[in-house]
Amino acid sequence: MGLGPAADPRRAAAGYRRGVESYVAELNRVSQAVLSVSRQLCTRDALRVIVRSARTLVEARYAALGVPDDHGSFGEFVVDGMTLAQQRAIGPLPRQHGMLAALLSSATPVLLPDIMKDPRFEGWPSTHPEMSAFLGVPVRNGAEVLGIIFAANKVSGSSFTERDTELLSLFAGHAAIALVNARLYERSRELSVLEERSRLARELHDAVSQRMFSIRAHARAASALVGRDSARAASEIAAIAELGAQAHAELRAVIDGLAPPELNGLGSSLRRYAALAGRAHGITVVVSAEDVTGLDVGVEAAAFRVAQEALHNALRHSRAEKVRVSLSRTPRRAVLVVADDGMGFDPDLVSAASGMGGGLGLASMRERAAFAGGRLWVRSAPGTGTEVRLSVPAASVVVGARPA
Fold first, then answer.
1. pLDDT tens, position by position, for the chain (404 residues)?
2. CATH architecture of 264-404
């Protein structure tokens, strides 16, 4: 009898610890699921990861994510737990009917021990797997329903619980943020592509079309002079050859800007491109680029594109006599600088005129810097030249070793 009172507190403490451990484990599972989704920058990939994470989180045999369209139905329906052959056998996307319609209209969680016994259930195709336990949770961004997560059939054979509803609702709230971010990122990429096309079109017009016009003018002059002044005709033909070489160099620079960078080390790639671009524009480009390795491939490509854009601006617009390109490192970061001694500009005025900071490709450079997890600074003022500085992370930065 004397052991009874002492044993109860110990059992209570043990039960409390088990409860805390279970709660921490659940939160850890939610955290891991949220991290998996937040890493996705493609909307389609984000949807797939949300579905897969939701199914794992509540230990369901099947899960799906329906994305509403503008007509009160589903524009997309992503499934996890079924083979592709099973999905094809089921047929086209579900539309507005039965339980799915109820969830679309109410946008509140639904927890059912057996979906087939609910009066709103209207059946499914004969090839559809049999389902009983059902949980539906909306993915909301404020008042907007971005999607609805469906989970069916606990792996254990039991019903979903209120705790499952809480966990899935918590996850859905974070998934909404990740999904919005993925959509915004895709839109920013689309804007960057349009900006890049516009820039390249302007560059082709400015760099190549004007050279071609001059070549035609000299060719007409040579044609008129060839029969009566051979010396002047020869001079015109020499001018045509020089203009053709300049046009070829500028066209090479534009093509290098169009092609995806195939980098054999960021430093050496910067040296090659800067030499080519400097010759094309007849401006001295001084390069001091260490061979920095240990950069992620995507970070390296983003840094190279920023350098291209900044160098293009300096050579085309700054009226500079000299441009300086440097690549260096700190213990944890690589630093790229493109600076010129040109006429400079007011960054605030350029940003205001472009609406979103897109003048001179600033928006494109900032977007690339953000994608690489870095930071971009643009320092300029009228009459003082311009400096573009990019700092990007490098997990293991090594200097001086050229890639094999």
1. 444 555 566 666 556 566 555 555 555 556 565 555 555 567 778 888 888 888 888 999 999 888 887 776 777 888 899 888 888 888 876 666 667 767 777 778 989 999 988 888 888 888 888 899 999 898 888 878 888 889 999 999 899 999 899 888 888 888 888 888 877 777 766 766 666 666 666 666 666 666 777 787 878 787 888 778 888 888 888 888 877 777 766 666 655 555 445 567 888 888 888 888 888 778 889 999 887 777 777 788 888 889 988 998 898 888 889 999 999 988 888 999 999 999 988 877 655 444 333 455 777 788 888 888 889 999 998 888 999 999 998 754 444 433 33
2. 2-Layer Sandwich (3.30)
Domain ranges, ordered by start, for the chain:
15-185, 264-404
pTM of model > 0.90: no
Which residue is it, tokens 């953000």? 370
Q: Look up residue 218 and give its two tokens.
A: 């000299």
Cβ contacts of 97 within 8 Å, gap of 6 or more: 122
- CA 260, distance to chain mean position in Å, is 16
**Is the CATH code 3.40.440.10 the one for domain 15-185?**
no
Rounded Cα–Cα distance for residues 219 and 47 (Å): 60
SS3 389: strand
Q: How far apart are the first and last CA of the chain?
A: 79
Given a contact cutoff of 8 angstroms between Cβ atoms, the answer to whether 367 and 305 are in contact is: no
